[in-house]
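User: I'm writing a tutorial on reading structure tokens. Could you give me a worked example: one chain, its sequence, then its tokens, then a sentence or two explaining what the tokens reveal?
Assistant: Sure. Here is the example chain.
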Amino acid sequence: MEKRIWAVGGGKGGTGKSFVAANLGLHLASLDRDVVLLDADLGAPNLQTLLGIKPAHPDLGDFLTGTLPTLEAAALPTPFPNLRLVKGSENILFIANINHYRKLRLLRQVRQLETSNVILDLGTGSSYNTLDFFLSANPGLVVTTPEPTSIENTYLFLKSCIMRVLKLYMDHYKIRDLHQKLLDQIEKNSQSLYSFFKNLMETDRSYGTILYRALRTFRPCLVMNKARGEEDARLGRSVADVARKYLLIDIKYLGAVPYDEDVPGSLRALRPYYPDHRNSAAAKAIRQMSEELAYSIEFTLRTPPEIRLPNT
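And here are its predicted structure tokens:
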């Protein structure tokens, strides 16, 4: 079965990652596509709340602790046709710090889920767990808002993804000394990534070519959520332009999701937003983004990168 793994992440809490993930899943399911939503926010899961579903077992923790043999067994039906949910775990202190082995097992099981679309709702920040889940997907969506702190954390999240990609390749090719050099340069100035590759090409073109090609496989998408006008939408384009220039990544700006005062009301009523507000500007934006990604030749033809994690 051909599978698309979508990941929704970001650098700051409160940007609406779970809102975007939930409504992407609801829209895709409404098109008669099989979808599994997986709450991979290991520290503060809340995806079931956005879907209006009460806490129950089994959940992700039951799989990670070995109570369930497969992740498929934790994917439960929802009231919405074609949509299943792997709920977040109640055992937050344990799950938030899953070890290397459990992370690898979870990544393998995500790829084995019996569905054509898996949507990962990731936690906030730049832990290795979050970064590796994000890098395993195609496409990966970074959700931000127009606030300065959110923009700053988005940039840091993207930079952390880049550092993780390069470190994995450096470990694989046993060129670990370059990792410290890269860290030192990035701390000095915003153009350090360009300087790093420029110097590396001059001193060791073979390694420079390997790492640059690795970097170019990282093609995230950016979503500006809670936009209150065209100025906020333009800000999203500017963030993508800056990332392309200084981080050397091929980032795609999907567009803006307008702010909607009905979203908090849906949360208070424990009802999912999309089915009740299909004609809203926010729902239309979600619909346009999901369809653009679903039918994009760029993403359809590109196989998600296999994240090969070091053993230590």
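What the tokens reveal: The two ends are 32 Å apart (CA to CA). Confidence is low (pLDDT under 50) at residues 300-312.
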